[in-house]
Amino acid sequence: MTSNKINYPDKEGFFGEFGGKFVPETLMYALEELENTYNGLKDSEEFKKEFYSDLSAFVGRPSPLYFAQRLTEKYQSGNIWLKREDLNHTGAHKINNTVGQILLAKYMGKKRIIAETGAGQHGVATATVAARLGLECHIYMGSEDVRRQSLNVYRIKLLGAQVHAVDSGSATLKDALNEAMRDWVTNIDDTYYIIGSVTGPHPYPMIVRDFNSVVGQEVIKQSDELFNKMPDAIVACVGGGSNAMGIFYPFIDLKETRLIGVEAGGKGVSTGEHAAPLNDGTPGVLHGARSYLMQDEAGQVKDTKSVSAGLDYPGVGPEHSWLKDIGRAEYVAVSDDDALKAFHEVTELEGIMPALETAHAFAYLEPLMKELDSSANVVINVSGRGDKDINTVAEIDGIEF
Amino acid sequence: MNRLTSTLSNLKSNNQKALVAYLVAGDPDMDTTLDLMHLFVESGVDVIEIGVPFTDPIAEGPTIQRAHDRALKNNISLKMILSLVDQFRETNKDTPIVLMGYLNTFISHIDMVQATGKDGIDSILVVDIPGELNLESYGISNPNINTISLISPTTKENRVELIANNSTGFIYYVNLRGVTGSSNLDITEIENNINRIKQYTDLPTLAGFGIKSTEDAKTLAKFSDGIIIGSSIVEMINEASKTKEFDRIGKYLKEMKTAIA
User: Fold this and answer.
1) For chain A, what is the HEC assignment?
2) How far is the alpha carbon of A38 from chain B, nearest alpha carbon, in Å?
3) Per-residue pLDDT tens for A60-119?
4) pLDDT tens, position by position, A351-366
5) Which residues of A touch B108 (CB under 8 A)?
6) Cβ contacts (< 8 Å) between B105 and chain A: which residues?
């Protein structure tokens, strides 16, 4: 395996055989415009200053790397550290990306912002930055997700954005993405599409990764300060994979750190009812990129199943597919039941209520900690907070308000 | 010569414009699709475009999306569509057939597409690949099948040439910024862009997306080599899906053919 940080993606947007730009011709011009703008700005001192100053003053970065005392005591086989992305403004890692992309939109002079959202966190993060700049904002959300994430739907509306419920297909995240792309094709001249994960056509997987990689950069510095070495393992949940890519990316060349992505196992990978393409999918093309995909023999995209709206997606960011194939990262899956158990356990033991997405990463501590010795340091990326999931959890627990 | 290429060149030498009509295979069912294909031909259609249903058709408006969904409920696959074409060819060896669909369906059936013989499909249009790529990039290099590329209002001049050189059937000019079935054609822009395309290629350039009325058809035929009609037919097919009385479609297509003559 050779060093890759500088070379990937290649000029056509490929990470090995994954990625690329598989879009209707109408979008090619917009992708080129975005790529040129980003490449022209990303190393400029002015742009970096603006981005990092927003991350600090508006988002509240850096987020702490927090020692999880009682979780550590529970497993008695290594130290567990929490990267507190849940403490960011709007409650998740998603804001890192939207703060960056809204700057690109501003530099490009776009007046109208669109985005897709699953759990609603990216919708909230997008509506937030659009409100701050006074830009018109439209959020596409599957109608099934509108139902199970009603709190975030209301937050998006309070922020002045319009929520468009999408009924087509499985009425979840993938269908919201389809509809956002259709909006983009139609309104391409004045509209900026803020994709919320490391998915979609090039240059999005690269841009979203770069803006989120502030998380991994902070972990390198904080690990050095707090335990004088790099972590033995980093664990993050993977739907599209932006929080995982953000924390993994600066570690790709630091081989002593295991990188573990946790997919949504739904009712169990063996049942086929899940959202774990890296565990149980094959390469295919969806939403502009080639990547692992849940599909049938005829090339049709399969419906997914997960208790967590943010992980309920049949594809995954192309860079994860590449990291899997070259063996640099490991990808496992955790069932709905185990994730829910972890949700309750972390809330009770640490006083931190993780998002259901994040709870998948916590659930993997159970098998992982058994493999590690007591001097090991494990970092969990706490990608978001769980307030938005209270209705879902209460419904499962049979509680009515 | 490929059936599509010869059909279009015959039309051109007779100073006629091509009428291309679209339907989604298996909407409402395969037997009806076969009947409709023959009805298309009887009503003056020069080229049949068959939509290959896909779960995530990002370039389609609501009308065609729903047709894809209906076809998928019938479990329509590319394999079944190739058999449909074989059936059609039992009585029609002249009308060119274009498959229009999304990359993932085609790359899941490369062997099948490669094995297609002379009396099968004539062309493939993949909606979600950039125009400068062609089927060979994905392992499909069947001499019986040519590639149709899309050029849109947002395609820049340097790409027009690249795409034109890469296309072998005709150039599909997308009339508008938007999905299939949208409205509001900007005729001046379309005319300018088609004339620009013609500076780079001798391939026929056909106009599609958003054509609803015979007026649209008549205007576009003045500067294009033909027109492609999709959503309005798909809508009519759906409206008559129970009664199977498709006379209205035949009448509509005849009117379109007259309008572009």
Assistant:
1) CCCCCCCCCCCCCEECCEEEEECCHHHHHHHHHHHHHHHHHCCCHHHHHHHHHHHHHHHCCCCCEEECHHHHHHHCCCEEEEECHHHCHHHECHHHHHHHHHHHHHHCCCCEEEEEECCCHHHHHHHHHHHHHCCEEEEEEEHHHHHHCHHHHHHHHHCCCEEEEECCCCCCHHHHHHHHHHHHHHCCCCEEECCCCCCCCCCHHHHHHHHHCHHHHHHHHHHHHHHCCCCCEEEEECCCCHHHHHHHHHHCCCCCCEEEEEEEEECCHHHCCCECHHHHCEEEEECEEEEEECECCCCCECCCCCCCHHHCCCCCCHHHHHHHHCCCEEEEEEEHHHHHHHHHHHHHHHCCCECHHHHHHHHCHHHHHHHCCCCCEEEEECCEECHHHHHHHHHHCCCCC
2) 19
3) 999 999 999 999 999 999 999 999 999 999 999 999 999 999 999 999 999 999 999 998
4) 999 999 999 999 999 9
5) 284, 295, 297-299
6) 298-300
